[in-house]
Amino acid sequence: MLEAALAAGDWAGDEREREEVIEFLDSEPVAAESLPAKPGLAIAYPDDLFDIIAGLQGPKRVCRLALEAPEQAHVLLVGDPGSAKSLFLLELERVRGALMAIAGNTTRAGVNDFLFDHPECRILLVDEIDKPSARRDLNALLPIMEGGLVTQLQGDGRFRTVTRRVKVFAAANSIRRLPAPLLDRFVVVRLKSYSPSESREVMGRVLEAREGVEPKLAATIARTLSRRTSSIRRAVQVARLANGDPELARALAARV
Fold first, then answer.
1. What is the pTM of this model?
2. pLDDT for 26-73, tens place per residue?
3. Residue 111: predicted pLDDT
4. How far apart are CA 221 and CA 235, in angstroms?
5. Quick one: pLDDT at residue 134?
6. Which terminus of the chain, N or C, has fewer Cβ atoms within 10 Å?
7. Crossing angle of helices 85-92/232-242, nearest 10°?
8. Half-sphere exposure of 234 toward its Cβ, with a 13 Å CA cutoff?
9. Residues 74, 185: contact at Cβ < 8 Å?
């Protein structure tokens, strides 16, 4: 069943197989501290990783499996706005060695230069990988994801190649325009959008745990904003602008 989970590039196919994969991934989680030490590329992560994300136990398990894998493993999170894709990446940023690459800068030179400049990078995070600005040179990711080969053009016209065996976690609204060779290197996980009640719960968790917002104020922002949007980013911005003022928070949440 583990092999089925890791090999399932796109869970939109056979529904029975998809149910089997989800059933396996939703089984009782294994605590990080109970895992045996693994050689190679296995990456330790905080015990509370993804705790602020409501539900979605299957996608959480896939991401943990990729982190624990002793070899390169890559995950692409696909879903509509408000389906917690970016929240997964923000949580993964907490893992030591994880660095975020801005989608608009993921050109061939940009990715290679980025990894040359950051040899400490073990996890490459790419949000909005399906944007046109990001799609131009995504072929640069292929040798990186396949074996970690990073090539840089030097000032003297010669190429320098190093190995950076990173794990790539990316997010996209759609995979329709992404090249097939790139998709073949990912485990593609589809996320469903949150309901208003789920959005309210997640907003409250994020504001309290990651933004340090007082619980009552976090609940007020989440309750007001979740009636209009499921955007976690918007909730964070409202909280930062309000800066602890409940009246201002309510006014902003009702209008932004």
1. 0.76
2. 333 333 333 344 457 899 999 999 988 888 899 999 999 999 999 999
3. 79
4. 7
5. 59
6. N
7. 70
8. 20
9. yes
pLDDT of residue 137: 60
Res 109: pLDDT: 54
Please report where in the chains the tokens 């990783």 appear, as a residue: 49
Q: Quick check: helix, strand or coil at residue 73?
A: coil
Here the tokens at position 107 are 């050109």
Residue with tokens 């089925």: 4
SS3 109: helix
The low-confidence residues of the chain, meaning pLDDT below 70, are: 1-39, 102-109, 132-137
Give Cβ neighbours of residue 44 (< 8 Å, ≥ 6 apart).
32, 95, 96
| Pairwise CA distance, residues 135 & 179, whole Å | 9
Tokens of 34: 């109970």
Element (H, E) at 238: helix 232-242
Q: What separation in angstroms does the CA of 229 have from each of 15, 121, 197, 198, 243?
A: 30, 34, 11, 11, 21
Residues 78 and 91: their CA atoms lie apart, in Å, by 16
Give the CA radius of gyration of the chain.
19
Label residues 74-99 b or e (16+ Cβ within 10 Å = b). bbbbbbeebbbbbbbbbbbeebeebe
What single-letter DSSP state applies at residue 10? B
> What would the pLDDT profile of 203-221 be if each residue is shown by its tens digit?
999 999 888 999 999 999 9
The residue among 92, 199, 176 whose CA lies nearest residue 129 is 176
CA angle 58, 63, 65 (to 5 degrees): 95
